[in-house]
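Consider today's protein:

***
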Amino acid sequence: MKDIIEKILADSLEVKKGYIQENTSSLILLAEKIATAFAMDRKLLLCGNGMGAASAQSIAAGFVNRYSLERPPLPAMALSTDTVLITSIATEYSFDDVFSKQVKSLGMDGDILLVISADGNDANILSAVKDAGSQRMYTAAFVGGDGGRLADLLDLALVTGSDQGPRIAEAHMLAGHILCHLVDHILFQSHLSST
């Protein structure tokens, strides 16, 4: 059993380290885009399926409530939290539309859509990204594998290169934590340290 734990830990550390190192400049760029959007009274919409939904909700909470710094709430919303809305859309239309209808309803020019996907091939994520692009939203993704069909539709793709679902989810959550920290730093700490 100890060997199993050590193997999982080693695999997790390897995937996370590789993901963050490969995407450091992209994480900085995304943090700058989100900070700029917040400063311009725009918002961050997030979505994902399964563990991607959990990551989206956790990241949104880090912005709306706080990550670690005491500061005003920031406008972020996970599109996977309203079960009545999601089941209504899935029943009356299609599960492929559960995020895109929300993007069409809530998204506007200057907003950002961050999607989280293990393989980049989820139909509902692809649909949301297409609709966000048509609304002039900036689109980005934390995505596993080679990025799938999603990678070619985005303004910015942060790809893990791994196909291990649990390890991908762990890497995406770490990237989400880093993103929250960087946005807080840009908006609230960098100007404090220069005064």
Summary: The radius of gyration is 17 Å. The mean pLDDT is 95. The CA atoms of residues 4 and 106 lie 45 Å apart.
